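Below is how a single chain appears once it has passed through the pipeline. First comes the sequence as given, then the structure the pipeline wrote out for it. We keep one example in the README because the format questions we get most often are answered faster by looking than by reading.
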Amino acid sequence: MRSVLDIYDLAEGRAQTLLAVESHIEAPNWAPSGDHLIVNGEGRLFRVPLVAPELQPIEVTGVKWLNNDHGISPDGETLVVSDSPARGTSLIYTLPKAGGVPVQVTPLAPSWWHGWSPDGARLAYTCMRGGQFGIATCALDGGDEQVLVTSAHHYDGPDYTPDGAWIWFNSDRGGAMDLWRMHPNGTGLEQMTEDARVNWFPHPSPDGRHVVYLTYAPGTDGHPAERDVDLRLIDLTTGETRVLTEVFGGQGTLNVPCWSPDGKRFAYMRYAQG
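Resulting structure:
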Protein backbone atom coordinates (compact mmCIF):
# COMPACT_ATOMS: atom_id res chain seq x y z
CA MET A 1 0.00 0.00 0.00
CA ARG A 2 1.40 3.39 -1.07
CA SER A 3 0.73 6.29 1.31
CA VAL A 4 0.30 9.78 -0.13
CA LEU A 5 0.34 12.86 2.11
CA ASP A 6 -1.64 15.66 0.45
CA ILE A 7 -2.32 19.29 1.38
CA TYR A 8 -5.63 20.81 0.31
CA ASP A 9 -5.70 24.57 -0.32
CA LEU A 10 -9.16 26.10 0.15
CA ALA A 11 -8.45 29.19 -1.95
CA GLU A 12 -7.15 27.14 -4.87
CA GLY A 13 -9.76 24.43 -4.45
CA ARG A 14 -7.29 21.63 -5.02
CA ALA A 15 -4.68 19.44 -3.32
CA GLN A 16 -0.97 19.02 -3.89
CA THR A 17 1.11 16.05 -2.82
CA LEU A 18 3.75 16.74 -0.19
CA LEU A 19 5.13 13.21 0.24
CA ALA A 20 4.51 9.70 -1.08
CA VAL A 21 6.07 6.63 0.54
CA GLU A 22 5.94 2.87 0.03
CA SER A 23 4.92 2.25 3.63
CA HIS A 24 1.81 2.84 5.69
CA ILE A 25 1.59 6.25 7.40
CA GLU A 26 -1.46 7.93 8.89
CA ALA A 27 -3.14 10.93 10.48
CA PRO A 28 -1.22 14.15 9.75
CA ASN A 29 -1.12 16.93 12.36
CA TRP A 30 0.06 20.42 11.34
CA ALA A 31 2.48 21.99 13.82
CA PRO A 32 1.55 25.46 15.16
CA SER A 33 4.90 26.70 13.83
CA GLY A 34 3.56 25.91 10.35
CA ASP A 35 6.78 24.38 9.10
CA HIS A 36 6.18 20.64 9.59
CA LEU A 37 3.62 17.89 10.01
CA ILE A 38 3.47 14.90 12.36
CA VAL A 39 2.36 11.44 11.19
CA ASN A 40 2.45 7.91 12.58
CA GLY A 41 3.30 4.66 10.88
CA GLU A 42 3.93 1.07 11.94
CA GLY A 43 3.76 1.99 15.63
CA ARG A 44 6.16 4.94 15.38
CA LEU A 45 5.95 8.73 15.11
CA PHE A 46 7.54 10.88 12.39
CA ARG A 47 8.10 14.54 11.58
CA VAL A 48 7.62 15.68 7.95
CA PRO A 49 9.17 19.09 7.11
CA LEU A 50 7.31 21.13 4.48
CA VAL A 51 10.67 22.02 2.93
CA ALA A 52 12.48 18.90 1.69
CA PRO A 53 9.78 16.56 3.04
CA GLU A 54 10.82 13.18 4.37
CA LEU A 55 9.96 10.90 7.27
CA GLN A 56 12.11 11.98 10.23
CA PRO A 57 11.70 9.58 13.19
CA ILE A 58 10.72 11.05 16.56
CA GLU A 59 12.06 8.98 19.42
CA VAL A 60 9.33 7.91 21.85
CA THR A 61 10.98 5.75 24.50
CA GLY A 62 9.28 2.86 26.23
CA VAL A 63 6.00 2.57 24.32
CA LYS A 64 5.06 -0.42 22.21
CA TRP A 65 2.70 0.73 19.45
CA LEU A 66 1.64 4.32 18.79
CA ASN A 67 -1.74 4.50 17.05
CA ASN A 68 -3.08 7.32 14.90
CA ASP A 69 -4.47 9.40 17.78
CA HIS A 70 -1.71 11.97 18.31
CA GLY A 71 -1.26 15.73 18.24
CA ILE A 72 0.61 18.87 19.24
CA SER A 73 -0.05 21.39 22.02
CA PRO A 74 -1.29 24.88 21.09
CA ASP A 75 2.12 26.36 21.97
CA GLY A 76 3.89 23.73 19.85
CA GLU A 77 6.12 22.53 22.70
CA THR A 78 4.48 19.21 23.61
CA LEU A 79 3.39 16.12 21.73
CA VAL A 80 0.49 13.94 22.81
CA VAL A 81 0.32 10.29 21.74
CA SER A 82 -1.86 7.25 22.30
CA ASP A 83 -0.08 3.95 22.86
CA SER A 84 -2.10 0.84 22.07
CA PRO A 85 -0.10 -2.40 22.44
CA ALA A 86 -3.31 -4.46 22.26
CA ARG A 87 -6.98 -3.91 21.52
CA GLY A 88 -8.70 -1.90 24.24
CA THR A 89 -5.45 -0.91 25.97
CA SER A 90 -4.87 2.58 24.58
CA LEU A 91 -3.50 5.14 27.05
CA ILE A 92 -2.57 8.79 26.48
CA TYR A 93 0.94 10.18 27.05
CA THR A 94 2.71 13.51 26.58
CA LEU A 95 6.36 14.17 25.72
CA PRO A 96 8.59 17.04 24.54
CA LYS A 97 8.24 18.09 20.90
CA ALA A 98 11.73 16.76 20.07
CA GLY A 99 10.88 13.33 21.48
CA GLY A 100 11.97 11.50 24.59
CA VAL A 101 10.38 9.68 27.50
CA PRO A 102 6.58 9.94 27.53
CA VAL A 103 4.62 10.74 30.70
CA GLN A 104 1.37 8.83 31.16
CA VAL A 105 -1.71 11.05 31.36
CA THR A 106 -4.83 8.89 31.53
CA PRO A 107 -4.89 6.27 34.29
CA LEU A 108 -7.75 4.33 32.67
CA ALA A 109 -7.85 2.41 29.38
CA PRO A 110 -9.00 2.62 26.73
CA SER A 111 -8.41 6.33 26.09
CA TRP A 112 -7.77 7.68 22.58
CA TRP A 113 -6.62 11.33 22.31
CA HIS A 114 -8.29 13.66 19.79
CA GLY A 115 -8.28 17.30 20.91
CA TRP A 116 -6.40 19.90 22.94
CA SER A 117 -8.21 22.88 24.45
CA PRO A 118 -7.10 26.22 22.94
CA ASP A 119 -5.79 27.41 26.32
CA GLY A 120 -3.60 24.30 26.58
CA ALA A 121 -5.17 23.23 29.88
CA ARG A 122 -7.19 20.12 28.94
CA LEU A 123 -7.18 17.12 26.63
CA ALA A 124 -10.30 15.73 24.95
CA TYR A 125 -10.50 12.06 24.09
CA THR A 126 -12.66 9.10 23.25
CA CYS A 127 -12.94 6.63 26.08
CA MET A 128 -14.75 3.52 27.18
CA ARG A 129 -15.90 3.53 30.79
CA GLY A 130 -18.19 0.94 32.32
CA GLY A 131 -18.52 -0.80 28.98
CA GLN A 132 -19.83 2.30 27.18
CA PHE A 133 -18.15 4.70 24.77
CA GLY A 134 -17.99 8.35 25.68
CA ILE A 135 -16.23 11.68 25.24
CA ALA A 136 -14.08 12.82 28.16
CA THR A 137 -11.66 15.59 29.08
CA CYS A 138 -8.94 15.76 31.71
CA ALA A 139 -6.18 18.03 32.95
CA LEU A 140 -2.68 17.53 31.59
CA ASP A 141 -1.70 15.54 34.67
CA GLY A 142 -4.57 13.12 34.06
CA GLY A 143 -6.59 14.36 37.01
CA ASP A 144 -10.16 15.55 37.04
CA GLU A 145 -11.43 13.21 34.30
CA GLN A 146 -14.88 14.40 33.22
CA VAL A 147 -16.94 12.09 31.01
CA LEU A 148 -19.05 14.66 29.17
CA VAL A 149 -21.35 12.33 27.28
CA THR A 150 -21.77 8.56 27.27
CA SER A 151 -24.39 5.96 26.39
CA ALA A 152 -24.75 2.65 24.58
CA HIS A 153 -23.95 4.44 21.31
CA HIS A 154 -20.55 5.15 19.74
CA TYR A 155 -18.69 8.42 20.32
CA ASP A 156 -15.45 9.51 18.64
CA GLY A 157 -13.21 12.28 17.33
CA PRO A 158 -13.68 15.18 19.82
CA ASP A 159 -12.02 18.41 18.67
CA TYR A 160 -12.32 21.93 20.10
CA THR A 161 -13.32 25.07 18.26
CA PRO A 162 -10.61 27.77 18.39
CA ASP A 163 -12.61 29.89 20.84
CA GLY A 164 -13.01 26.92 23.18
CA ALA A 165 -16.81 27.27 23.16
CA TRP A 166 -17.58 23.92 21.54
CA ILE A 167 -16.30 20.38 21.18
CA TRP A 168 -17.26 18.74 17.90
CA PHE A 169 -17.46 14.94 17.66
CA ASN A 170 -19.21 12.14 15.79
CA SER A 171 -21.79 9.75 17.18
CA ASP A 172 -24.61 7.45 16.15
CA ARG A 173 -26.69 8.55 19.16
CA GLY A 174 -29.30 9.93 16.73
CA GLY A 175 -29.66 6.63 14.87
CA ALA A 176 -26.91 7.15 12.27
CA MET A 177 -23.27 8.28 12.41
CA ASP A 178 -23.42 12.08 12.25
CA LEU A 179 -21.53 15.10 13.52
CA TRP A 180 -22.47 16.67 16.85
CA ARG A 181 -21.19 19.43 19.08
CA MET A 182 -21.49 20.31 22.76
CA HIS A 183 -20.09 22.83 25.20
CA PRO A 184 -16.91 21.74 27.06
CA ASN A 185 -18.99 20.95 30.15
CA GLY A 186 -21.17 18.51 28.18
CA THR A 187 -24.22 20.78 27.85
CA GLY A 188 -25.90 22.13 24.71
CA LEU A 189 -25.75 18.96 22.59
CA GLU A 190 -26.55 19.73 18.94
CA GLN A 191 -26.67 17.43 15.93
CA MET A 192 -24.81 19.17 13.08
CA THR A 193 -25.32 16.78 10.13
CA GLU A 194 -28.27 14.64 9.11
CA ASP A 195 -27.84 12.92 5.76
CA ALA A 196 -27.38 9.50 4.21
CA ARG A 197 -23.58 9.54 4.53
CA VAL A 198 -21.63 8.03 7.43
CA ASN A 199 -19.83 11.04 8.93
CA TRP A 200 -16.63 10.94 11.02
CA PHE A 201 -13.87 13.06 12.56
CA PRO A 202 -14.91 16.74 12.42
CA HIS A 203 -12.07 19.27 12.68
CA PRO A 204 -12.86 22.98 13.21
CA SER A 205 -10.44 25.32 11.47
CA PRO A 206 -8.17 27.64 13.52
CA ASP A 207 -9.84 30.73 12.00
CA GLY A 208 -13.27 29.55 13.17
CA ARG A 209 -14.77 29.55 9.68
CA HIS A 210 -14.95 25.89 8.68
CA VAL A 211 -15.20 22.28 9.78
CA VAL A 212 -13.62 19.58 7.62
CA TYR A 213 -14.67 15.95 8.04
CA LEU A 214 -14.59 12.48 6.50
CA THR A 215 -17.65 10.71 5.06
CA TYR A 216 -18.24 7.11 4.03
CA ALA A 217 -20.88 5.61 1.78
CA PRO A 218 -24.27 4.90 3.37
CA GLY A 219 -24.33 1.67 5.34
CA THR A 220 -20.62 1.64 6.21
CA ASP A 221 -19.93 0.08 9.61
CA GLY A 222 -17.30 1.86 11.72
CA HIS A 223 -14.43 3.75 10.10
CA PRO A 224 -12.62 1.12 8.02
CA ALA A 225 -9.53 1.59 5.86
CA GLU A 226 -9.30 1.11 2.11
CA ARG A 227 -12.62 2.65 1.12
CA ASP A 228 -13.72 5.36 -1.28
CA VAL A 229 -14.48 8.35 0.96
CA ASP A 230 -15.31 12.05 0.63
CA LEU A 231 -13.69 14.95 2.43
CA ARG A 232 -16.38 17.55 3.09
CA LEU A 233 -16.38 21.10 4.40
CA ILE A 234 -19.00 22.94 6.46
CA ASP A 235 -18.99 26.74 6.10
CA LEU A 236 -19.88 27.89 9.61
CA THR A 237 -20.97 31.32 8.33
CA THR A 238 -23.51 30.08 5.80
CA GLY A 239 -24.14 26.56 7.11
CA GLU A 240 -23.49 25.17 3.63
CA THR A 241 -21.67 21.85 3.12
CA ARG A 242 -19.70 20.90 0.04
CA VAL A 243 -17.58 17.99 -1.17
CA LEU A 244 -13.92 18.98 -1.52
CA THR A 245 -12.41 15.77 -2.88
CA GLU A 246 -12.92 12.03 -3.15
CA VAL A 247 -10.06 9.77 -2.07
CA PHE A 248 -9.25 6.13 -1.39
CA GLY A 249 -8.69 5.98 2.35
CA GLY A 250 -10.80 6.11 5.50
CA GLN A 251 -9.03 5.01 8.67
CA GLY A 252 -5.83 7.06 8.83
CA THR A 253 -6.98 9.75 6.39
CA LEU A 254 -8.28 12.48 8.72
CA ASN A 255 -8.35 11.12 12.28
CA VAL A 256 -6.80 14.05 14.15
CA PRO A 257 -6.50 17.89 13.98
CA CYS A 258 -5.01 18.60 10.57
CA TRP A 259 -5.36 22.33 9.77
CA SER A 260 -2.57 24.77 8.97
CA PRO A 261 -2.26 27.47 11.67
CA ASP A 262 -3.92 30.09 9.44
CA GLY A 263 -6.90 27.85 8.60
CA LYS A 264 -6.31 28.10 4.85
CA ARG A 265 -5.08 24.54 4.24
CA PHE A 266 -5.35 21.10 5.78
CA ALA A 267 -3.39 17.86 5.44
CA TYR A 268 -4.76 14.37 4.87
CA MET A 269 -3.70 10.91 3.76
CA ARG A 270 -4.82 8.92 0.75
CA TYR A 271 -3.68 5.50 -0.33
CA ALA A 272 -2.96 3.67 -3.55
CA GLN A 273 -3.00 -0.08 -4.05
CA GLY A 274 -0.18 -1.85 -5.82
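The first strand starts at residue 2 and ends at 9.

See the next section for the split statistics.
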